[in-house]
């Protein structure tokens, strides 16, 4: 059985790597065509395009891994069936349970690999690729927003601890790839949602430990006149005290990582980053449903390799006369495309219908797993 396990492992891994390399080459070609229009802007040249495409490979590997596992495993199983190898294995007392167990062991390797690529490599290389391209072209992370980036924060009595005494809205016109922010506007409200302070600053630098240093500051304190009751304007108008400062320290839950999340595709973030941003949104009473769905998809997605391998196993029971290898591979491609489409469809439908994020993320995998179980039952009976 150990020899058979190694044979399964070697054949499936070779097939999956071959399929993965083929798709990576295809996506790299599409990216090259797409980036050619940007060559010559700023310092962005053709050799920079190849570096940018290379940095995007981990993201593609993560997205394509279940698909490649499905096609690669189907190819290996189809070869076993066409050469009558699987028939000989079954005659030699290989049960369906044994075959599932061997595939599960191979799938565990793919699961760990997919998880590491998605959690460690993809977030780092995606951010590096974005910064690399933006630096050369001269774009900022906030250029995609017409009015800059907006973020909400809570104000506590003692910095980050103590009772909540208000809320703060932060508008950042420009965020550099190095994390420097420029043209900052802050609007602070008390618990009664009355505007009590506005702050404008030319630029800001993150000091760590949730502290920012804002430079070129104009701070306006807005105080009630105390004569608003029964009075008309201007007697009822609040008193505004304006003061200019060279710099101030700002304690905020908003960090460069949280700001960068706003301009980064959630699918290219790690589960940890999504969890941190989800907590930030919930604490500030903002809708976090889309990021919660992205978080659970990030957790469940690596396990889909098991589902894909379960879907591929029935193809080993179909003899060569039931259809050629190419037909089986084409069927596998259609199944993979259907899985990707349904997975994305459920994300949008779940968001529109406010389904629980966990169920929204797990239902597609469960449906395909049930389909695999039914297919195994059918091929064994027939």
TrEMBL record:
The stretch of residues making up the signal peptide is none
According to its UniProt record, where is this protein located?
A: Cell membrane
- Report if keyword Cell cycle is assigned: no
GO annotation, cellular component aspect? ATP-binding cassette (ABC) transporter complex
- At the top level, the lineage of the source is Bacteria
NCBIfam families (UniProt xref): LptG_lptG (TIGR04408)
* Record protein name field: LPS export ABC transporter permease LptG
Kindly list the organism's lineage.
Bacteria, Pseudomonadati, Pseudomonadota, Betaproteobacteria, Burkholderiales
């Amino acid at each position: 059985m150990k020899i058979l396990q190694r044979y399964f492992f070697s054949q499936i891994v070779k097939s999956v790597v071959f399929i993965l390399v083929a798709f990576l080459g295809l996506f790299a070609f599409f990216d090259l065509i797409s980036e050619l229009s940007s060559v010559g802007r700023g310092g962005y040249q053709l050799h920079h395009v190849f570096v940018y495409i290379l940095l995007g490979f981990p993201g593609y590997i993560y997205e394509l891994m279940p698909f490649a596992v499905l096609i690669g495993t189907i190819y290996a199983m189809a070869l076993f069936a066409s050469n009558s190898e699987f028939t000989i294995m079954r005659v030699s007392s290989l049960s369906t349970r044994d075959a599932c167990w061997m595939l599960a062991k191979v799938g565990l390797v793919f699961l760990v690999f997919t998880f590491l690529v998605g959690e460690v490599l993809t977030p780092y290389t995606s951010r590096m690729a974005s910064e690399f391209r933006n630096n050369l072209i001269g774009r900022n992370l906030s250029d995609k927003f017409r009015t800059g980036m907006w973020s909400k924060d809570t104000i506590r009595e003692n910095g980050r601890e103590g009772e909540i005494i208000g809320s703060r809205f932060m508008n950042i016109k420009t965020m550099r790839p190095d994390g420097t922010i420029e043209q900052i506007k802050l609007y602070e409200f008390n618990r009664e949602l009355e505007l009590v302070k506005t702050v404008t600053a030319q630029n800001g630098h993150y000091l760590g430990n949730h502290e920012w240093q804002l430079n070129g500051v104009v701070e306006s304190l807005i105080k009630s006149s105390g004569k608003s009751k029964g009075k008309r304007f201007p007697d009822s108008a609040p008193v505004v005290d304006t003061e200019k400062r060279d710099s101030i320290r700002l304690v905020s839950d908003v960090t460069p990582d949280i700001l960068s999340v706003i301009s980064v595709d959630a699918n290219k973030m790690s589960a940890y980053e999504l969890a941190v941003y989800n907590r930030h949104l919930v604490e500030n009473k903002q809708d976090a449903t889309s990021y919660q769905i992205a978080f659970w998809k990030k957790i469940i997605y690596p396990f889909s390799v098991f589902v894909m391998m379960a879907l591929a196993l029935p193809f080993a029971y179909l003899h060569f006369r039931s259809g050629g290898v190419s037909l089986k591979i084409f069927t596998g491609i259609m199944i993979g495309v259907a899985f990707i489409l349904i997975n994305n469809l459920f994300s949008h439908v779940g968001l529109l219908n406010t389904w629980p994020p966990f169920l929204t993320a797990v239902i597609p995998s469960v449906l395909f797993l049930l389909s695999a179980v039914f297919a195994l039952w059918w091929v064994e009976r027939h």
